[in-house]
Known about the structure:
Blueprint: H1 12-15, E1 24-33, H2 46-59, E2 65-69, H3 75-83, H4 89-93, E3 99-103, E4 108-112, E5 118-125, H5 129-146, E6 151-152, E7 156-157, E8 169-176, H6 178-182, H7 186-195, E9 198-201, E10 214-219, H8 227-255, H9 257-273, H10 279-294, H11 303-312, H12 315-322, H13 328-344
Antiparallel strand pairs: 1-5, 1-8, 2-3, 3-4, 4-5, 6-7, 8-10, 9-10
Helix pairs in contact: 3-12, 8-9, 9-10, 10-11
Amino acid sequence: MAKKDILDLVTPWMIKDGPDGDVVLSSRIRLARNLKDQPFPWHASLETREKVRTKIKKAINPEEFDFLSLEDISSLERENMMESHLLSPQIIADPAGRGVAISKDRLSSIMVNEEDHLRIQSIAPGLDLDVAMKKANAIDDQIEKVLDLAFDEKYGYLTAWPTNVGTGIRVSAMVHLPGLALTNNMPRTLNSVNQLGMVVRGIYGEGTEALGNLYQISNQRSLGRSEEEFLKDLATVATHVIGEERKIRNIVIEKNRAFLEDKVHRSLGTLKEARLIGTNEALALLSDVRLGIDLGLISDAIKPTVQALMQIIRPAHLQKYLGNNLDPEMRDYYRATVIREELAKE
């Protein structure tokens, strides 16, 4: 087994606690931008995408970002970046003529030629939308000094999807909701979020499933309101969801503490002893353990390790960590081994 510190290998926001970090793992701001007088990426030829990529690369500060052409890196590395939320599932499906710029601190990235020419995103630990917004705006301002972007005085920024026209902003929070899931209250909460004008998506965004009780809450449109109003709306909805999750957790621990203690310790025991384990099962058990930590049922000394494991045991991360391409059955074996070894250190 490779001997590496997993805390050094995962996305920084995954192991750092920010505001309301017991429920909110991260806040993300994404800005969609396009170059003026250029076809949108999905309607552009490979030659055009390559020209656009070159133009954007020249506009990005190399002292702050590392730029990669996606066809020049392995599919495993692309999947690893997707699991780290630096790339989307859509862009890794067809890497030709596409690229990504990743900030030195790995908290910001710029996807090039995804659905739009530029997808600027910044992430902050916990519910900290202002910090993420400040970083995203700084990147946007720097790029707009160099590139002529598609902008209409009436409609705002022009984008490939009508739902992104206007500010081009997508404000989101990644939340951990084991209490609502355990008590079957997710449908009610999802309905209330939708009524407030937001949408709940899976772990990697639109069209993906929720793994480890992790969900993304985000705005559905970007036209007709200011960026500040969208931030305020998301903060309001996130605060509501945080309150619901905490309320359910408290109810369960007050009314059925023995059940909850048994559940989280059984999950920890399974993780410490399993010899084969799949991604979904591992994430579900790690979600239980994290819940136990947040409620004081399990020592918080293992929290950084548990949070790191929630990322490092995903397929691409696991294979990069081990330095080998593995078939699914072998991944289940080594995933269990890595989890056992890391938890045994605590």
